[in-house]
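In keeping with the milestone schedule agreed at the kick-off meeting, the structural modelling team has produced records for the first pair of proteins. Each record is given below as a sequence line and a structure-token line. The laboratory manager (R.T.) confirmed that both were archived under the project's standard naming scheme.
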Amino acid sequence: MAAAQVIGHIHGLHRDFANIQAHSSWLQQFQQAPEAWAVVHELLTSSSEELVQYFASHTLVTKLQAGNVPNVLACRQELMKYLKHFWRGPHAVRRQLVIALTDCALLQPPTEDGAWLADSVQQLSDTIDALPSLLELLATIPEEAANRKVVVPAQRRLAFATGMLQHTGTVLEALWKASQTNEACAVAALRACAKWLHLQHASPALRAQKRAASGSGGSGPFSADLVRQGTAHEHPLLKQAAQTLSIVHTAPLELCRACADLLSEAQMLTNEATPQARALHMLVVQAVVEGSRQLLPLTQKHLEAWMPQDSELTARTAVLGRLIGELGGLFCRILIADARAAALPGEPPVQPPSGLSGPLSDLTDVALHFCALRHTDLAKCGLDFWYAVLAQYLGAAAEEEDPYDEEAAGAGGRTTAAPDWSASRDPQLETQRRSQERHILEPHIQKMVKAHWRAVRYPSEPEHEEHFEWDEFVRFREMCSINVTEACLIVTPRWIIDHIGSILEEICSRQPIAWQDIDACVFMLTGVASRAPAGQDTVIPKLIELLPHLPYHTVGFKALLLRSAASRLILFTSGYLALNPEPCKQILHFLTMQHLPAIPALPQVPDPDVNKYCEALACDAMKMVMTAARKGIVQADGGTLWREVVSAVISLVADPRFNVDCRAQLVFGIGQVLSVLDNWSELEQMLDLFVSRMEEPLAPVLAQLPPEPLGARASKATRDGKAPLELKLYIAAVSSVYNMPPVADGVNRPDHHPVLAVVEKHFLTIEKVCIHHTHYEELMEQVCLAFSYILGFAREYAPTSPVFVPMMKLMARCCEQHPQPFYMGLIRSVIGFFAAAGSEQLDLILVDLTGLFVTPVAHHLGSGASTLPPPINAAAYEMLAEALRHWNLALLAIRSAQWLTNVFDATIEVVARLVEENQAVHERTVCAMLRFVRNILLWGDPETCKGDSAPEVVDLQKQAQALVAERPLPRGVALQRIIVTLARLMAAAAPNGASKGEVVPSTAEVLRTVLTGPFEYAAGAGLPAALRALPAPLGEALSEPDLQRLLQQLKMEKGDNRR
């Protein structure tokens, strides 16, 4: 394999775009070839092209991570030579060589780790040119120690990590010296130091501390050895990082980022509040506070004006923000520890009389400032701080994943799944702890809530605010809402509501009213709504009363956003409105007469999603109020309010300016109100009016239809391939009332069902809609669901309704034109609804329906044609199996329906062939077929109805037995063919794995049934012959004694279907 050939494919990978995949595959195969070692050597020593050099060095990494190295020592020496050759770069090549050197060390015996590290550091410390390679190596060692791509045993990875930890002091000293060379080396040294501090979590002692409290939830108190020794905060690299971060406004940006990396890892070395830990933590806190003192005044104007996304000020602020977001848990732990220390013996912890002071006080001010910054990414850092405070209080603080847990489980067999803290902690102790800590945190969380109100305010003119991004801000507000909701556990929902109430009073006292402030108040209240008892405050009722009178704008983002805020408040207070008739009436009037009618007329804003969101939220609010308050609506104003509301909402549904999905939400609300009317005559009248109103827009659509349906020749005429929305809304209106409560006992039973009466009245239109649009699958599935709902909730009246049979025939005709599985699903549901009704006439209808739908499917399968999709086949046989599950339908079908004989015959013939063709594709169909066959076998078994000697049951047994064992079918008597089919099924399913799927268990159920019932003798005699008739070598696999033992085992086996 020549180097030139490899170079050619490397060039092709980056230049020959038409054959990239071929070049990539060839190079991947090359990397696995043994001769690649020699070619890589030639490429690294003779090529001057970086692209080629990088591929060669990456090939070394690939081979070493896979463990494919002939001689570790020789390889290590060769890698060091390569590294010296690339001391000056390119950086990407040097990086790969350093990774390869570290991975090579993982392949050597653990006893050589110390000598390897010392030798490598010594060789890379000889000259200034080698310094970047040394720093790269020291940063790579911790990374590769936890890299599971390196194929070495778990014990070896742990041994390497803990072995490296023994040299922490030496490494940190070397990094400090290297950091004094120049700025680039300082950045690399700081980042390497951060990686080395992260490696401390591999310490067995540290991991044992974390696990000590795992039984009580979360991680136990822990401190790394560097912290316990009390010297971590004095290390010159950490002090340098803290000093640099305190002048973040002027220090080089990359240096500041590296310092933040180091301080971040340092503060995560402990979660305790001991003096040693506090010294380290306060070093980090003071650095952040001092840096913020210098930098944040520059951001003061951005508490109102939005910051640019990528300015230098933004980048420098983000350096501090990253640390702020990580310090919330630390702040909470120190605050609680100080309170406990200040308490008298035996007394609960107390807040210091003078309040919080010093760096911790400054830290909270910084976190509050970050929350209010008008830059979502930076403000999220403040949210993360307070979220961590709340999580610490709740006992749900997230512990960083231990990258060595998996290795520990592999090495020692110990499971390391994270415990469920909420279930494992003592509830009484948790309640006591929270009650003690709550008043300590309360003043700080109150400040947090106030800052969050400022943070969620929109700009007054969003579309004119430079750097404002609407979608990002919406996601940011949802994060704020999470914090506010959890804050209720500390400051109580009542305090937050009262605070927002005081803000509202101030807002309303100013003219003009700032819409963004009202919106912020609504948003905060909806965040509290889930934790606040409904109706126990005065703020939300006043705000609801205020909604119709707010100064809603008519153009721009603000018009849509304030409308959305009103909808959001109504949506979250629908439960309160359901309990309070007068406010509910006012809101219903506001929604139907002012709010919803105004929304379609609002101009489009640059982001069209805002218009869609506003419309969807308003319609959802309307639906929720109508649903939650439906009983109150039909009783209000002497039973007259509901007419006004429903009539108004019908007009909204008919408004084509609304999105079809939003109109469907309103349809649902109408149905919910109508469903609770006691007077079925009024219900029928209003539903008829509603359907008639929704029929009006159909006129242009129906007028364009041909005299006769096109059937299978019809094609979709809409751009999106979906049915005209007028048709979908019409069907939704027809089926909008479906969950009516049953008629109370003692009340005269009406002679007909109002929904069925409306369907009957409009059936000609329904029929025309369906029969001409069968090619629109989503519309016809909606029709099937509509009929299912209507018949299911009117099952007492449906069988005698004049429209019942025409509905079913209509669905059969539609299915004939464009078969779909949901038609069979509808018939299956209808069978479930009415099979137990006890009506011979209805039984006949159900049997005929079943045959009407299943016969074409069985005919297609029996003829060997595969024109129908597998889901249709499966749905048809699932419907058939459901029908044969009911004794009355089974008796009628077996005794009188010729179609059942033909379907039974075709099924026996085809079921094994489907598995032989493709078990994965036909599995659902095959299992449904086997259930159908088993149901017939079961009805022939006296044990199925043991103790029931009714003439019908006895007749069913005889008819089923005759069908299986006596009746001549077109392809021969069924019983022996069933035995042969079962043998073929077992043979065909075997290659796919007996434990996979349901074919083998379903076959076993049928086999057990045929071997233990009235067909036992004939089946027992026929099964050995069927097994011997299987193609070689299966037919010759069992001797005669083995066959007899197998037969006995099959007869005796009762529990495991897979045996």
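The second protein of the pair:
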Amino acid sequence: MHPMWQVELPPPPTSSLSPLSRELPRLLGRQKTDQMRPFCTHIVVTGPSQSALDLSKQRLLFNDDMAHQQHVSEVFASGNNDSDFSTSRARMKLFSNLVALAFCAIELVSAYGGKPVCGFNNTVHGSMPLTAPGLNPTIVVSQSDLWGVQRAAQDLSIDFGRVTGHNGTLLNISGSSLPGGHPSLIVVGTVGSPLINSLVASNKINISAITGQWESFMTQLVSNPAPGVQQALVIVGADKRGAIYGIYDLSQQIGVSPWHFWADVPTIHQDVISALPTTKISKSPSVKYRGIFLNDEAPALTGWVLDNFPPTKYGPGFNVNFYELVFELLLRLRANYLWPAEWNSFFYVDDTFNGPTADAWGIVIGTSHTEPLARATKEQSLFLNGTWAWQSNQANVTEFLREGVERAASWETLWTMGMRGLGDTSSPTLNATQLETIIGVEQQLLEEVLKTNNLNNVPQMWCLYKEVGGYFEQGMTVPDDITLLWADDNWGNPERLPIGNETTRLAGNGIYYHFDYVGSPRDYKWINTMNLPFVHEKLIQSYERSAKQIWMFNVGDLKPLEIPINFAMDLAFDIEEYHQPNSTLAWTQAWATSNYGSALAPQISQLMMNYSLLAGRRKYELMDINFFSLVNYNEFETVIAEWVAQATAAQAVYDQLPSNAKASFFEMILHPSLAGMTLYQMYYIAAKNNLYAEQGRNSANQYLMQVFDWVNRDANLTMTYNGLLNSKWSHMMDQTHFGYDNYWQQPMRNSLPGSLSYVQTQLDALPGYLGVTVEGGNGTLPGDDQFHSNGGSTLQLPPMDPFMTTPSRWMDIFSRTSSSTPVTFYVNTTVPYVKASIVNGTLAPMGSPNQTDVRVYLTVDWENAPAGDTSIVVTVSTTSGINWPFGQAATTRYGTQYNVPQIMLTLNNTQARLPSNFSGFVQSDGVVSIEPEHFTNNKTTTEASAYYAVIPGYGRTLSGVTLLPATAPVQNPNISSAPVLQYSFYTFNKAPVNASLSVAIGPTLNTDPNHPVEYAVSIDNGTIQHVRPIPVTVLGSYGVPWTNMVSNFSTYNITTHPIMASGAHTLNLWAVTPSITFQKLVLNLGGLRDSYMGPPESLRVNV
């Protein structure tokens, strides 16, 4: 126990009341915890003062001894900003570190994703003041209502305190009469509770729209609800969670974020809050079971838990105090389902209050795909008599599973069915026939323990994860009352979705989706790298394809993934709200507004979208120095500039926020932006060090030192995060994230990227003091290397033309001397229409790279350049070096055997050949590069059975274009009415050429084995070529291209098309099947160079 905490337990109401620890047998018995009653025993924690803002969770002890409950329990005294209630057990260091954040005055907006029920003035006719100076709300709930509803009502009273500085008053009343004398009255309850029944009977409310509807709720401002009561805001839930969601909906609308604890989102002070004269009906959620899986929770989450909760008998303190924080977050996010932490805990064993508490709160507990019938992974090896093997230990495994059912039978559970090997592995002995037998035995156990002959209303799921999917493909029969939980490939791509009669299964279908993963080709578990538009595309696809019973998200440590978790839960709750292809942008705008106010919301929304694209290009853990090009298309420089712009913009927003909003913004927006920029800078500088050392540059050593600096900055960011708010989030950034060495598993310590080099600068380079290299290659002059012919004195720049998107080419001139004498250089373009940005200068022999290296840009005056093709020579000379007494001075300045560097440059002045009325893309640098959203024609309409839509922010560069809906029929490109995307482009090739067309698509798999992913393409009236880019494989295996696809966040295929003459052409592109999203199109006419993302988009004219 932390020494600063002193825990005082008041005496129980009667001597016969057992402490909660001795209540365990009763709580673990058959009695439903919905019938447990709160408000009997207080645990008072003395220590640092806590305002209502600090009370992240108040846990009430259960007691069903009704003889000691008061007729009316006033839980919170009106106007008291400090609650008598705290946690049921000491929070250890965690809550001593909470910082009381001052209220701020930034604009408050209503919660997003639903109709507003409150506002912040009293000018709306018919509104009712909930708060005002001297006025605080009274919240009334029936004593006989469900415990979880009463507990949420308590949160609402505290939430008002968070916003106004004064808690509401909570009244637990018996009977059905509303108390008079309360000018600000909020009534909460479930259908069937006495208070709600009374209002229905007196025709004050009509609950027909929600009655019998899963998790729905209604909020209504009611006039004259009872004698002496002029108005009341009534929140009615169709069931327990419906009422809880209605309560938290009001909490969020007054300004309390679901992330008030887990991401430190502050409230915004308000004095006047009014209930609007309206009725809100919240229908049943789009997805029935919506939840998260805490998985691979070490080192970050486990370290945090060890730091803040006492250890359990078998490991870290994943106890009820920890899980209550998770339960509250889930309910505020309108989620309802949890797979508890797997690898370092036993949910039901670590703390015997975990199970009943989850049930009382309203959380459905399940277990992961490898933990059938509520038996944790670690239990399988510690508590099972014998080995976890059906074939050799059937009797003991059966009894082991029976005990799991018996333990969790009283609580709301979604039962995991099936079996895998020990420790999330495939079983070497299981097959489809045995698995059918196992599921049959498991269902028999459920029937016996739950005492039912009908399992239709007993939630069960079987997850088709990895090898398990193969059993299903072999023809395994799965009972119709079991939900099929279709898994992704661990990288966000559903492997398969329901087809045929699978879509009408009694228990429906669901998806298991990863935001975090440990495994091949590489772990990704540091910080958020999810491309939100990509996630949106996959979730909408899954929903439209009937996977809507369960959505389960693997969220790793939870903490770094706040944004994708929130995004997924909002879609799962009401998918129609954000169903359109461009809905991600709308969601980020609403999220930013809700959490930080409307003034900065546009900037924050754009930061979220930009980060999503930048981080999604390639997982941080997969980065190294070789992916982005230093020599082609200015690729690596452009990427770094984007990251610097992102970090700079995030810092600018951070600087404008009030002090109490800075911590949350740092955690969710600024830290990821700075951390991403830092990691990319580290690899960028390391790549420069590697290349420049090969070229013999003195500056290579300075870049080596800069790598060390960026590594240190990364460490400082980690320590800043872990030390935030007096180390509230200690260990949450402990995850290693660089230093992988051709192995998928996390490195045990961050270490420098490989291939770092140091140049021996005490001696001169053999070719002399000066070095030259050019865009488009790694070769260096003077001297020999593998990139140009030995003894050669020329390098070739990529050609230039008037339609380049970047109007220049570059060459680097650099020092390679050990002398203290500066190195002079002279650049001669030899023709007047080619200009050099620097024609002469001096390089320092040592010092920073901007002193030892210079980049010279070459530009062309196309109006005065000759038409057609011209080749010129650019020379780079020096007067620095050794003059041998016998020999030519010009030669000896380039070593003993080399000559003046000559740079060859071809100019293609095609300006006059482009018709002035042409509209479309123009060939440049031997390619036509196209962003798919920039089509010339989109021959489709949204009213058609299939149509194309743009997904902003999707992919690696700009956006994606996809065929919708996900249920669209297979298209036939040979039919003129088939939806087609057309792109006009102009080429200058003088002779026929076989052009190679690369079509890059977003990651995807064949979710319908009867119709593999397919597109078709043609140029002009040429042959329509069909391409199936994803191999057809057995479910659970992915084929050879998969590793590159998920690593690169893209895959591409190449088709060849004859282009017989220069001029205007049309590229025709069809998505034959849905489930395909086009990312980029590159037509190679002979000039394509290596890069990660392809050449920048070609120039478009007259558009």
